[in-house]
Amino acid sequence: MPNLTVSRHFVQAALEGAERLGFDTHEMLKDAGISPDLLRIDMARVSSDQFSRLMQLLWQRLDDEFMGFGPRRARSGTFATMCALVIDCPTLEAVYRQAYQFSRLFEPMVTMELETGGDKARLVTRMEGEIHDPGYFLRESILVIWHRLGSWLIGQPVELTKAEFAYPRPAHGDEYRHIFHCPLAFDSDRTALTFDKRFLSAPVIRDKSEMRQFLKTSPADLLSRPDESNTFTGKIRALIGRDFSKPLPDFEWIAAELHTSPQTLRRRLKQENTSFQEIKDLLRRDMAIYYLGRPELPINDIASKVGFTEPSTFHRAFKKWTGVTPGAYRDGERGNLSD
């Protein structure tokens, strides 16, 4: 089953620390099943499986969970040790307080601190020392990992009301809409995530055996495969399904299935920084990329599989999504891209 895809930007940004330290990132890409040729396509995307493998390779080969971006190394096993500590916490608030106490044992400190006030809770990034993070990858990763770990532990997504960044909007800022599903603020005085305080009292529902299973692929999977099952975006994706060869359900039917009015659903999608049309387009794009990775499928067959009656319309749409034709994209995946 095809997963969501990850922008080429994050693949290249993830490797910047390893490159600075002199590691062979070409070899890492190949070992993760990513053709270096593909990254020559500006708008290329990789599967979440490939990205997850790349993250695991980076942590293993550098023996550094900060991937060469931090003020010091975070040896392999640091995240797992923190998880072993927080699994015994009764609530999400206790998880975040305990995780902060653990992280501040290391100097310089790279962590997130929980602040509360009124009915709001905020996770604020605390970074000491000099970081080497030109693509903001370390800062993004820490936000995402702490947020998604907390959501996983309580078995429900911690719905964000705001994401702030103490840096200008980066060139890849549009990707943030699909990562945080909430209003974004750049050039802020802090890098932080804000959510409703009620989530802090949610009980931790995972146990140690679930945590052991979770750690086999985490935190790589937290970065590459968000659990969006409880966002409206995720629910709509599930209702649309993967079969685009038959007519797609319309918006009114989807709203009825989600027990809400079309107006309310439109408003909720706007809060999640997306729209029904965009959800359909991105699903089609990700399906097309998945099928292009299967060399036995002719491109015209892929066009009909992702819901295009005319191959020419598919070619135009695919070029809009990725900047290149399906054929050129397939050549990039195979490493056959000509100059």
From TrEMBL:
Q: Name one GO cellular component term.
A: cytosol
Which PROSITE patterns does the entry link to?
A: HTH_ARAC_FAMILY_2 (PS01124)
- Keyword annotations from UniProtKB, A to Z: DNA-binding, Transcription, Transcription regulation
What GO molecular-function term can you cite, just one? DNA-binding transcription factor activity
Q: Which PANTHER family match?
A: HTH-TYPE TRANSCRIPTIONAL REGULATOR GADX, HTH-TYPE TRANSCRIPTIONAL REGULATOR VQSM
Q: Which superkingdom?
A: Bacteria
Which residues are listed as membrane-spanning?
Answer: none
| Name used for this protein in its record | AraC family transcriptional regulator
**InterPro entries in the record, alphabetically?**
AraC-type_N, Homeodomain-like_sf, HTH_AraC, Tscrpt_reg_AraC-type_HTH
Q: Which organism is it from?
A: Marinobacter similis
Q: Which ranges carry the HTH araC/xylS-type domain?
A: 234-332
Q: Name one Pfam family in it.
A: Arabinose_bd
